């Protein structure tokens, strides 16, 4: 990878400004966070600390920081790829395999709700504090998962683990956005994704070895040691920078709150983080989506009081959430003013639709490979990782091209079209009876190639539509929509699975042994050990899986149509060497977007920058 041009400048050996590292305000100094004055000040303590640290960083610090980003991304990336496999075995061991989508919904909801407040935590308390906080929750959640003896405890561990993972990933996004220009951003955004190129091929060997020689609990638990160890370079570089700034006297003006102001501080934190809005968002998503994944199954629960009550309360909370964000929240997690921009709205829909469509065909793909295609654990793990591998390889290559090709909208549009076509291939090659393993692998490769064409370019276009001080806010919202798409995708796939597969299994197993339907549904990985390929029982189960997967794939194709339409609605600005376009948000009018201090910003460059649609 070509590294940026970095030189030492002056006695403090700070980084050259040509790389846009410190020639503008830090990414944390954006949006409502700065204007909060976090705790009644002009700038939050976290922002001041970041600025002080930034002024002391050396070339070696930057190398360590980027190396640390790659290292921790390698660890949590391999953990994600293997943990998704262990999750299948965990639910199978609890005879709750159908709850896979429910667990994924819970993780996605937590990730969606945690994004906005965590972006503010990074600004109020600092980068070092956020990464420490996140690693702690990552480890705590992983310990609970590994020690769980039922699906409820496992789900509780996943909640804490997801909070930690979300914080780590968000910190990495913020750091990268802070040091790159628009034309370089797509390329450098792939640094935390580069480990997928390696992990795709070794994750299968790891899971296969763990399942063969140990238990899924050990496969999960070992990350309580690995992830903290790989976080040391980032923690060390931020800590040493902070210590260097303190010795230079650059932190002396950042004073802690006095005891008399602590209550006021807590109240301001409540409003700054919009904790009520965050809780309302998590509640309404959980209460609406989770019942849809559990109401079906071998015995329908749609008429049960608990399902009805959760759905009713969830939908009732929607107007309360909107009203609070519009009228009650001082610093809302949803920046409604920015949503008047066509490119931002279109980009957010792309973010939501990407995971929505992918999880429709991918939520139960690993199980499908083992049951219908009779693949090994290693092969199944590699096939389910092909999307990540191909998207990173293609994305990195395109990121290099985008440094010279300044208009990227139509590349993103082409990617969404290819994505829809690849989902169409999954309708055709959904089981071994319809073209075999090669067709499914080809479909997954096509999905991955498409995934390299549009997610990060669209993120860059969304960031380009906002002023520099709002990039952190809109990036957090983009990632939130990405996670909400995961939640919706898992919800729909879980609803289709739980309301279709049990009846199919009962129908096709009835002439053979109808009592096997429940076992085949609740613990399919155990079932296939007793009924190998070629037995009447396995053939009946494969047929049921085939027809259920068909519904899932067709739903994905249908929902990919508005994804393509949204990509066509994006603007097509020329991406230059700035962190944000000078004319961003100009067409939004004089109304305040997030904070009143933006009204004073009259330094708008009048350059004619192309924004053709």
UniProtKB/TrEMBL annotation:
Residues 596-613 have a biased composition (Basic and acidic residues). Gene3D superfamilies: MFS general substrate transporter like domains. It is a multi-pass membrane protein. Keywords: Ion transport, Membrane, Transmembrane, Transmembrane helix, Transport. Its main location: membrane. GO terms for cellular component: endomembrane system; plasma membrane. One of its GO terms (molecular function) is transmembrane transporter activity. The chain crosses the membrane at residues 57-77, 128-147, 159-179, 186-204, 216-240, 269-290, 302-324, 344-366, 386-405, 410-429, 441-458, 470-497, 551-570. InterPro entries: MFS, MFS_trans_sf. Belongs to the major facilitator superfamily. This is Siderochrome-iron transporter.
């Amino acid at each position: 990878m070509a590294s940026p041009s970095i030189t030492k400048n002056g006695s403090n050996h700070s980084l050259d400004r040509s790389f846009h590292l410190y020639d503008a305000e830090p990414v944390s100094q954006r949006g409502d966070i700065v204007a909060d004055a976090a705790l009644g000040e002009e700038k939050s303590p976290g922002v001041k600390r970041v600025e002080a640290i930034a002024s002391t960083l050396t070339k070696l610090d930057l190398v360590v920081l980027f190396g640390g980003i790659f290292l921790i991304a390698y660890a949590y990336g391999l953990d994600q790829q293997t943990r998704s496999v262990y999750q299948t075995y965990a639910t199978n061991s609890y005879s709750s395999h159908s709850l896979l989508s429910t667990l994924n919904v819970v993780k996605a909801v937590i990730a969606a709700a945690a994004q906005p407040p965590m972006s503010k935590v990074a600004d109020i308390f600092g980068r070092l504090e956020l990464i420490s906080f996140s690693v702690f929750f990552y480890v705590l959640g992983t310990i609970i998962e590994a020690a769980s003896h039922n699906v409820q405890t496992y789900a509780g561990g996943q909640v804490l683990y997801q909070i930690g993972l979300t914080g780590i990933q968000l910190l990495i996004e913020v750091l990268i956005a802070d040091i790159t220009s628009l034309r370089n951003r797509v390329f450098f955004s792939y640094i935390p994704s580069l480990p997928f190129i390696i992990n795709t091929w070794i994750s299968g060997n790891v899971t296969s070895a763990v399942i063969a020689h140990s238990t899924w609990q050990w496969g999960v638990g070992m990350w309580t040691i690995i992830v903290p160890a790989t976080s040391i370079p980032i923690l060390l570089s931020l800590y040493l920078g902070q210590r260097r700034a303190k010795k230079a006297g650059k932190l002396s003006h950042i004073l802690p709150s006095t005891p008399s102001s602590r209550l006021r501080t807590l109240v301001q934190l409540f409003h700054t983080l919009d904790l009520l809005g965050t809780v309302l968002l998590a509640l309404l998503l959980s209460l609406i989506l989770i019942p849809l994944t559990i109401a079906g199954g071998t015995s329908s629960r749609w008429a049960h009081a608990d399902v009805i009550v959760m759905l009713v309360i969830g939908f009732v909370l929607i107007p309360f959430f909107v009203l609070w964000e519009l009228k009650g929240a001082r610093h809302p997690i949803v920046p409604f003013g920015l949503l008047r921009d066509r490119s931002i709205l279109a980009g957010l829909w792309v973010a939501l639709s990407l995971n929505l469509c992918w999880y429709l065909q991918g939520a139960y793909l690993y199980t499908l490979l083992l049951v219908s295609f009779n693949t090994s654990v290693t092969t199944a793990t590699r096939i389910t990782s092909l999307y990540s591998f191909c998207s990173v390889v293609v994305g990195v290559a395109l990121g290099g091209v985008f440094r010279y090709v300044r208009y990227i909208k139509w590349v993103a549009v082409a990617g969404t079209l290819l994505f829809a076509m690849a989902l169409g291939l999954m309708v055709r090659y959904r089981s071994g009876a319809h073209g075999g393993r090669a067709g499914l692998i080809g479909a997954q490769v096509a999905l991955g190639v498409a995934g390299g064409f549009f997610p990060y370019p669209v993120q860059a276009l969304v960031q380009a539509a906002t002023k520099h001080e709002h990039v952190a806010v809109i990036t957090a919202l983009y990632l939130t929509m990405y996670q909400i798409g995961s939640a919706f995708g898992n919800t729909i796939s879980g609803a289709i699975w739980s309301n279709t597969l049990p009846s199919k299994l009962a129908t096709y197993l009835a002439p053979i042994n109808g009592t096997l339907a429940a076992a085949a549904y609740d613990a399919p990985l155990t079932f296939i050990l007793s009924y190998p390929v070629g037995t009447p029982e396995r053939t009946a189960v494969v047929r049921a899986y085939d027809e259920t997967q068909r519904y899932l794939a067709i739903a994905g194709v249908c929902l990919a149509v508005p994804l393509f339409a949204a990509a066509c609605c994006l603007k097509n600005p020329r991406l230059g060497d700035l962190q944000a376009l000078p004319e961003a948000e100009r067409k939004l009018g004089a109304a305040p977007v997030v904070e009143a201090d933006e009204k004073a910003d009259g330094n708008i460059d009048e350059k004619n920058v192309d924004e053709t649609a």
